[in-house]
Recover the amino acids of this structure.
């Protein structure tokens, strides 16, 4: 009987896992629409998906995440335009992230006796999944166009109190201090840079992004995010400077993706890192 129960739980586990992976691929497909249409302000223009080159309606079977790209062998069926590998990459990344997050936050219970559904763990999973999805969309847009849409960054800031209210580990005060600390700190840096160099080194998109990160992860996330983001950003920046022998790379490399990477690293590994640094206390 006990063995049968364990088998049952494992079946539920793997069913939920693969559902989460499939959901991730679909969310990735939606993120592609956001990435393409939000900066163009055509988000609500077409409810159905159309070819961005020739405007022909795309049948649903070519729109299956990841799979569709390989069925079409990277070329649009209607007009033969090459489809960017960014589309399947975003879909694949989102599905992998959703699956890995489920391994970290197994909200349907790993073992007998822990219950089939854990609401608190589900909220942690959903929070991380939505947060990382938004970070991914903003990073790709920033990398392509050097802008971070206000709809996403300010939208996240506005939703922060609601997120803090629902999430079991966040407090409203921690979230509001996070917005002020994140936004204030980068605003100060941007202002000082302008004061010294008389040019813009940091975009105000980055200021709003760090405020949003503080609002969704709490004030404790601000310094680790800035620290990780700056280190990785500097390494990439110096590498680009060496490879392309270009001066003034600071203005050509967006900071947003590195802030996002720092925030996601803190979100996933933050508690473990704190545990290690505090000597296992
Ligand atoms: Zn076409």
């Amino acid at each position: 009987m006990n063995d049968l129960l364990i088998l049952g739980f494992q079946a539920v586990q793997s069913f939920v896992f693969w559902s989460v992976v499939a959901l991730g691929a679909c969310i990735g497909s939606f993120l592609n629409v956001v990435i393409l249409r939000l900066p163009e302000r055509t988000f609500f223009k077409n409810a159905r998906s159309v070819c961005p080159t020739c405007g022909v309606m795309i049948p649903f079977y070519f729109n299956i995440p990841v799979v569709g790209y390989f069925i079409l062998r990277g070329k649009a069926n209607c007009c033969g335009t090459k489809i960017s590998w960014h589309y399947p990459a975003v879909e694949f990344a989102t599905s992998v992230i959703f699956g890995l997050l489920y391994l970290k936050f197994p909200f349907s219970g790993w073992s007998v006796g822990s219950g089939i559904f854990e609401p608190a763990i589900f909220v942690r999973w959903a929070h991380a999944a939505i947060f990382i999805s938004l970070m991914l969309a903003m990073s790709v847009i920033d990398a392509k166009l050097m802008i971070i849409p206000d709809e996403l960054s300010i939208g996240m800031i506005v939703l922060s109190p609601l997120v803090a209210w629902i999430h079991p580990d966040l407090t409203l005060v921690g979230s509001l201090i996070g917005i002020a600390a994140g936004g204030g700190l980068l605003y100060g840096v941007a202002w000082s840079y302008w004061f010294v160099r008389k040019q813009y080194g940091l975009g105000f998109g980055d200021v709003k992004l760090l405020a949003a990160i503080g609002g969704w992860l709490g004030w404790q996330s601000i310094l680790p995010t800035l620290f990780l983001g700056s280190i990785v950003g500097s390494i990439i920046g110096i590498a680009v400077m060496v490879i392309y022998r270009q001066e003034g790379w600071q203005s050509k490399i967006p900071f947003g993706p590195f802030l996002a990477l720092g925030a996601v690293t803190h979100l996933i590994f933050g508690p473990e890192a704190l545990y290690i640094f505090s000597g296992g206390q």
